[in-house]
Model the fold of this input.
Amino acid sequence: MPGLAVTSLTLSHFRSHKAARMELDGRPVAIHGRNGAGKTNILEAVSLLSPGRGIRRGATSEISRLPERLGWKVAATLLRHGDIHQIETWAQAGEARQVRIDEKSAPQTALGRLIPILWLVPAMDRLWIEGADGRRRFLDRMTLSFRPDHADAVLDYEKAMRDRNRLLKEGATDSTWFAALEAQMAEAGARMMSNRIAALAEIEASQLGARTSFPRADLQIVWPDDPAPPDAEAMRETLRDNRRRDMAAGRTLIGPHRMDLSGTYSAKGMAADQCSTGEQKALLISLVLANARALAERGAAPPILLLDEVAAHLDEGRRAALYDEVVDLGAQAFLTGTGPELFDSLGTRAQRFAVNETDGQSRVTEEEA
Done:
């Protein structure tokens, strides 16, 4: 059994799953079924065992199963370093998402301290060529796995920035309010940037000398305009000095929310956004594996990995190499594919489940390896 694993997962009125339960033993979980059967819904449920809006970034109202709209619930038993934890997260119709850990109410950020989760889904295939928002979220997800308090810094920064942006749009002139919010943004923003930079250093160190079949991706923080100052005091002063310009724009124009992430295929010296689709996918896989290796190298349990339809984009040799690396890491990975043959090279090293959809309802069945 790995150091971190979901050992049971229960879904109630979650998208296409009216009721589903999976008993897991810590091995990788290979889930197959035709498109639309409900495979990704299982991965989305697992992703909601971490802070945020999950792999689809769906609103809580979108997750609730139709036509009932009763709300939804995900419950899991987690084995972490020999300790067992019970996790529940749910949302009633029209209400915000709730979290309970070991029968006690908890903020979402507490999930980040308990269960690091990384994912790679088809929507991320265009990560290198679309907007910077997705790349920031990708970096923050990696950062959160190393520094669980990163979620608190991000939330504190975004809340203070929303309040400051409201004052900017209203044309407020009270410098006291601005100063208080800018101090909060600067303190949280400096923590965000420090965490991100440290996470990139860990990823880089993990990739150097690693034996892997996937290409090394060099990452670098870039800025579309003025970079955010590196320390809290300088950031606070910059925000103060930029009030007039920000007020004209109606929003904050400088800060860690403006940073971007560039990637380079190291062996070719080629920017990721200029690589082929297959190369871009391989670079993303490389980074997810490097993240898991870095955690294992520092003595922590590898994160839980959610790899949606990843096998469809790899030839047989690359699929086998990916599975070997996941198993060698000791990570519990949830993998999906349209057919069971995509997981043949896993053999008995994985649990296998089939997902079928009948009359608008998904059903999950465990199969023999």
Q: What stands out?
A: The two ends are 18 Å apart (CA to CA). The domain at 1-116+303-369 is CATH 3.40.50.300 (Rossmann fold). The mean pLDDT is 94.
